[in-house]
Amino acid sequence: MGWSGPAADALRVAPGFDLADLDTRSTPGWRGKKRAGRDATAARGRELADLQEKLYAHGRTGGDRSVLLVLQGMDTAGKGGVVRTVLGMVDPQGVALTAFGVPTPEEAAQHYLWRIRRALPAPGTLGVFDRSHYEDVLVVRVEGLVPVETWEPRFEEINAFEREVVESGTTIVKVLLAISPEEQAHRLRRRLERPHKHWKYVPEDIDARERWRDYQQAYQEVLDRTSTEHAPWHVVPADRKWFSRLAVTELVGRALEGLDLDWPVTEVDVESELARLEASEV
Amino acid sequence: MGWSGPAADALRVAPGFDLADLDTRSTPGWRGKKRAGRDATAARGRELADLQEKLYAHGRTGGDRSVLLVLQGMDTAGKGGVVRTVLGMVDPQGVALTAFGVPTPEEAAQHYLWRIRRALPAPGTLGVFDRSHYEDVLVVRVEGLVPVETWEPRFEEINAFEREVVESGTTIVKVLLAISPEEQAHRLRRRLERPHKHWKYVPEDIDARERWRDYQQAYQEVLDRTSTEHAPWHVVPADRKWFSRLAVTELVGRALEGLDLDWPVTEVDVESELARLEASEV
Fold this sequence. Notes:
Chains A, B: Keywords: Kinase, Transferase. Chains A, B: It comes from Actinotalea soli. Chains A, B: One of its GO terms (biological process) is polyphosphate metabolic process. The structure is a homodimer. By secondary structure, chain A is an alpha/beta fold. The first copy, chain A, has one domain (about 1-280): Rossmann fold (3-Layer(aba) Sandwich), CATH 3.40.50. Chain A has helices spanning about 5-10, 35-60, 80-85, 105-110, 115-120, 140, 150, 155-165, 180-195, 205-210, 210-225, 240-260, 270-280, and strands at about 1-5, 30, 65-75, 95-100, 125-130, 170-180, 235. In chain A, helix 2 packs parallel to helix 12 and helix 3 crosses helix 12 (about 240-260). The mean pLDDT of chain A is about 95. At the A-B interface, helix 3, strand 4, helix 9, helix 10 and helix 13 of A face helix 3, strand 4, helix 9, helix 10 and helix 13 of B.
């Protein structure tokens, strides 16, 4: 039971990867079922809390490292649940979550990377993007919001942008949560059948669903063209929620471990501060 | 066991309240010990998640309500732990945590409420201030950073400011976490004795400790002059961490319940959307 090797190896997009061939109920790299998966998520979460505190301490003492989780996926793929799982296990201080929706008029008046840059995690921070700059080569393309001459050069631009982000000290973890159209129908049906979930439902969800193949094709091109050495894509099968939560927790944990941070060494003279403390009469 | 009445009644600052008389190990309003307290916190947390989702849904559908938790307390009083507890139980989306430290040069160049206004929770959001505008009548006063003519009028100004915030739809929950000087010494000692906590230690903590009475007096005046009908103060004894976490969870839960929100009613025609869903061939 457990991971058969580094989860990143099992989930990272390899050359020739074809999204159409993915079994969205599979659990690549994981040997075990739901119960063991949930236990492993909780156990990894406790380590995550420690790793994230170390990152935060590093940032508070002049360090420049940070981690950015970029989440993409079709509606109902479970981005919100993954965010709740991962961020629910760490200290809210030191975390920065940004959900990117339809651009506001202010955002739309700027370069599409403007709002992204503003949301990049500060040193010491674990940042999470719920949707991201990839929408500018996904929804924008499929819905024909801008002409091909506009979105086509963005792949290269995004690669250059991410290189810059990585070089400034941020580890980028890009994850596509992949569900099947059948699973999406099931989740949309549940949303429609439960009155207290109605607020989450917008008719545009079905509009997008009707262009499923176009979206898959757009996602495939994103994977083909922007899975770089400095910022590779991971595709996480997401029909089983317990697996997508486990997998992303693991990927973020590994990214934090990869920073190889130690607890900062204080410049304070501990002995003399202890003496001051004992002498302080209140 | 459990709360003997509304926690807010037991913890709200009553006329004539004297901080010097507070037993910081007491558990006002709560009948039970540590284990029951922790269980109650977890149980309340599950309700909190639901209430916060309702608030978020309300904000997403045009509602104007929000909740703001304002946390104050001496160093090591446990503000960070309370934040982790409360926010760890709700959806990170829909939460906005701001920690106010020493003002940056940009902030210092503005009115002291400038950075506070910028951090007010948006509609549908549960905001948390870890320290707040109250530092501008606390540390600023005790450390003599501005003259009395400057800070003295701030009490009235803060009351007027908070009234404006409340009138715009925000419920303000103000909490002072009160520890004893002995408990602070214990916690500072632990911080100094554990190398992986050194990064949290700054010698200024002991500087402030040496002015304990001045701070207590400044806090007393804050309670006397800014515990208003629209934004009352609560004093939570905080020597026992399990109690402060339980109490603040309960206060925030009650504030959310007090909004008396229902799940938004959708304008979508559910039947026809279900039909569209079934017809969507992918």
